[in-house]
Amino acid sequence: MGFVTTQDGVAIFYKDWGPQDAPVIYFHHGWPLSADDWDAQMMFFLAQGFRVVAHDRRGHGRSAQVPDGHDMDHYADDVLAVVRHLDLHDVVHVGHSTGGGEVIHYVARHGDSRVRKAVLISAVPPIMVQSPANPGGLPKAVFDDFQLQVATNRAVFYHNIASGPFYGFNREGVTPQPGIILNWWRQGMEGGAKAHFDGIVAFSQTDFTPDLTTVTVPVLVMHGGR
């Protein structure tokens, strides 16, 4: 585990576990979490002989709580900084939610010369917010309320998300797991409110359609229904 400094001077925390010459799986976390959200999966693949890498997005987790740069361009550039710092090649990138958008934008923005495959798990591409071009999206008012809650009531808001829809603990017959809920809450509260506030726009309003048309590496898409 360590830090890399990006071109615009932001300290990005990363984890790098496993043999240096092993196949690499790079995990990208969702909003408003950190690399810790992937610990179980990282431990599993580490035991299978892989090298596993994950970073805390700027303003999230242990990375610097900078006031700006909370957009997909900077997120993708931060990934490149970690990839270059660790000299990673032939990487499988796995992204959940916002992390899936980060993966696609990284590949589109910086090319696939170091990329082997990508995996998108309940990810935000192509775009989340509702518009005439995307009538099936969520109304912007939903994300406006997210921002209001982050700005005014973040601790309770995060606990409610983890206690309910994120893990499906609000479904009939599902028993809530307090440790899992508190771990989600801990990760959220460890990051910066400004980064999380701005990040809502980044994950909900970024249109990844142009990025998707440029990706040529194999991509596995895993997306459930309601």
UniProtKB/TrEMBL annotation:
InterPro entries: AB_hydrolase, AB_hydrolase_1, AB_hydrolase_fold. The keyword Hydrolase applies. Keywords: Hydrolase. Residues 23-147 form the AB hydrolase-1 domain. Gene3D superfamilies: alpha/beta hydrolase. GO terms for molecular function: hydrolase activity. The keyword Hydrolase applies. Transmembrane segments: none annotated. Pfam families: Abhydrolase_1. It comes from the Bacteria. This is Putative alpha/beta hydrolase fold protein. It comes from Shimwellia blattae (strain ATCC 29907 / DSM 4481 / JCM 1650 / NBRC 105725 / CDC 9005-74) (Escherichia blattae).
